[in-house]
Specification:
- The protein is an alpha+beta fold.
- It contains 12 helices and 13 strands.
- The protein has helices at about 60-75, 100-110, 115-135, 195-200, 205-220, 235-245, 250-255, 260-270, 280-295, 305-315, 355-390, 395-415, and strands at about 20, 25-30, 35-45, 45-55, 80-85, 90-95, 100, 140, 150, 160, 165-170, 325, 340.
- The chain is globular and about 55 Å long.
Length: about 425
């Protein structure tokens, strides 16, 4: 790459047709934001997205933080990361190439709004993704239509992206949540931010879920009543948006829509800061709309997909179950087994060590945890058999000898 990234014209059209890391050819600009730009790149092993961020002195790198969090999360609905590298004055992240965002799909829709079935399907799909993130001690803090996208090859798969503002909301060891302090400014996007976030309070799981409610309302209605508010300053605008959100009830916001949408927002607004959300209940609200209100089925027939897309997706779809706490990872080029959402499998400290060291530690930890689970299972079987022998009325010397051997084996396993 030499000094490509250090030149003044590193971004924009000057990158088109450039070759990076000897194999990735930049072919198209996809978008840009406050801290960088994103491009489509081609390589011998497929298409990828290239995300660039300029280094800012004494400023936290959102791209570095985002790449670490995405690799840590790694699961269904999370785009996979190919590479993160710091080069000269810029940072580069190569990630899974995705399709259009929900905002883009909305703008392309005929009536500039999505159908009731599609919005309900999105609720069914996105709530489990948020639960998966929350169970790994992370909150997103910037839920909006631009930050959800469909798969590049599978338009039925929805992904959440842009983790630049994401953070840990609780300790992964003690599960103690961050204190609910008040900040001087909003983190996130005012249009979709929760009422408590607009008031400046520390965010938790409830805020991600309330934001999703406003996103779904926006996709269903095509607009929100607090859009386009005129104000002289950002602070004044945020205050006016907050006032509107407080004074417009969910019943008024979603008038003539199924009651389940109203129940969803009211439930999220009533959650306490540290309260565990009932994700099952929230998913069931949207399942109710499809199966009872619409008398339809959950078949992934979003407004933008055809029957073949839906059928192909269903073949590989394993319905999410919160009872067994598992999510199947269907990310590109990732054949991981189901990821258990039990806290014992979570990384204890996301901020410790460097990016590469984290990768190595995670790999070693998975190997240790796999061995640990095998040992626990073996000990359980030994204990079960031992208890059975103890209860037997016809114990003999042979049985007693076996129990001694099992006890010895159990001690060895524990050691």
């Amino acid at each position: 790459m030499q000094n490509q990234l250090s030149s003044n014209n590193v971004l924009g059209n000057h990158l088109i047709n450039q070759i990076f890391f000897d194999k990735y050819k930049i072919v198209k600009k996809l978008g840009e934001g406050s801290f960088g730009m994103i491009f489509k790149a081609e390589s011998p092993d497929g298409n990828y997205a290239f995300k660039f961020e300029k280094k800012r002195p004494n400023k936290r790198s959102l791209l570095k933080s985002e790449s670490q969090i995405m690799i840590y999360l790694k699961g269904k609905g999370i785009p996979s990361i190919k590479l993160y590298k710091e080069e000269d004055d810029y940072m580069v992240m190569i990630m899974q190439l995705l399709g259009k965002s929900l905002e883009g799909l909305l703008k392309e829709s005929k009536d500039k709004k999505l159908s009731l079935k599609t919005v309900s399907l999105l609720g069914i799909e996105l709530i489990p993704i948020l639960k998966f993130i929350h169970d790994k001690h992370i909150i997103h803090r910037d839920i909006k239509p631009d930050n959800f996208a469909i798969g590049y090859d599978d338009p039925c798969q929805i992904y959440i992206l842009d983790f630049g503002l994401a953070k840990k909301y609780r300790s992964s060891k003690t599960l103690k949540q961050n204190p609910m302090i008040k900040h001087s400014r909003l983190t996130g996007t005012a249009r979709y931010a929760s009422i408590n976030a607009l008031k400046g309070f520390e965010q938790s799981r409830r805020d991600d879920l309330e934001s999703l409610g406003y996103v779904l309302a926006y996709l269903l209605r095509g607009a929100l009543p607090w859009q386009g508010i005129a104000a002289k300053t950002k602070e004044e605008k945020y205050a006016k948006i907050l006032n509107k959100k407080i004074n417009i009830s969910p019943e008024k916001l979603l008038k003539n829509e199924p009651k389940e949408f109203i129940d969803y927002i009211n439930y999220c607004k009533d959650l306490e800061y540290e309260e565990d959300p009932n994700y099952n209940y929230l998913v069931d609200l949207f399942k109710n709309i499809i199966t009872k209100v619409l008398n339809d089925k959950i078949d992934f027939m979003y407004d933008w997909v055809n029957v073949t897309d839906a059928e192909n997706h269903i073949k590989t779809y394993n319905e999410l179950s919160f009872d067994n706490s598992k999510l199947e990872n269907s990310s590109m080029n990732n054949n991981m087994n189901s990821i258990t959402l039990n806290s014992k499998n979570n990384i204890s400290n996301l901020e410790d060590a460097s990016f590469n060291e984290n990768n190595n530690k995670n790999k070693k930890k998975k190997e240790r945890m796999s061995h640990y689970d095998e040992v626990i299972d073996e000990i359980y079987l030994i204990k079960k058999e031992k208890d059975k022998n103890k209860e037997s009325k016809n114990n003999n010397d042979d049985n007693n000898e076996k129990i001694k051997e099992r006890k010895h084996g159990e001690c060895c396993l524990l050691i």
